[in-house]
Amino acid sequence: MTCPKEIARIIEENEHKIRSCYSESFDISREDFVKMVLKDSTFIIELFLRADKKEKYKNDYLLSNPLLNRHILEDLILLENQLPFFILEELHEKFSKRHSENSLFIDLSRNYFYSCIKSIPKVMEKEKGKKKEVKHFTDLIRYFHCPTKHKDFGDSIRDLSTATQLYETGVIFKLDECLERTQPLLKIPQFEIDDITEGLFRNIMAWEQCYYPSEAYLCNYMGLLDYLLDTGEDVELLVEKDIIVNSLGSNEAISKMVNRLCLEIVEENSCYSELAQKLNKHFDQCCNRNMGLLKSTYFSNLWRGIATIFGLIIFGFSLWSIIRPYVV
């Protein structure tokens, strides 16, 4: 059985390193600081261990209460509530590793935050069993949302048409694992949006603005969506293409959420700069806009398309009956 004094000793040895991880200083005594970190870290590790064995702890007070468990998860991803990841890793390595099938604390964390990163299972599986240097839980979740390959950054996006406007000019939206443009497709990974999404991304984006200003992948992604999803109609289009999984209920609520997330976000560069330029170039071509107008006006749905074709056939017969005497 692990003695709290042993855990406290490890925390005491790392006290200065833990304190240096925060931008603000803690005006509390060493004893109180160690006690605070001890309580928080042991609670988190125990919670993760139990969550990793849900069947065994299905009657656990916390895990059996979905609402309470959700509130705890939301608290753990708040940027202001973070514990340095290294101390949790060290404590798990020395005291609780033998109680878990996951030898690495990063795997325990990944499993607990699965609901926040479940849209990228292949990345998760690929990274399983690997050590990754992360600062804290917010940084960890950001890591799993980042692309597996480094993207080139260009100028920030200044202008881009909405998803509906692009669709009307012939851009085809397709569900894919990565976000890229291949004529005439715009491949976009699936994005599940629920009640926790706004809080999650708000914290990650705030962290990126402070720590990854030149590699703000999620800020760039939300910035791109901010242009694409201007109205509920834009959201509805991507929902129909299975690109957005709407668990909020209202398409309008999603467009407003994305718009809110991008308020006061400073974007000096973007990894989607080239993509936006290609889309703008496509949209600016008159033939694409004219074809899009023709499609949206006369072939927006099956019945209108059939009516248009019949109208053209009738027009053709009428025209032929007029010019026939002069031809024969």
From TrEMBL:
Tell me the protein's name: Uncharacterized protein
Keyword Membrane attached: yes
Q: Which residues cross the membrane?
A: 302-323
User: Which PANTHER family does the entry mention?
Assistant: BNAC04G53230D PROTEIN, PROTEIN, PUTATIVE (DUF247)-RELATED
Record keywords: Membrane included? yes
Ordered alphabetically, the record's keywords are: Membrane, Transmembrane, Transmembrane helix
Q: Which Pfam families match?
A: DUF247
Tell me which InterPro entries the record gives.
DUF247_pln
Classification lineage: Eukaryota, Viridiplantae, Streptophyta, Embryophyta, Tracheophyta
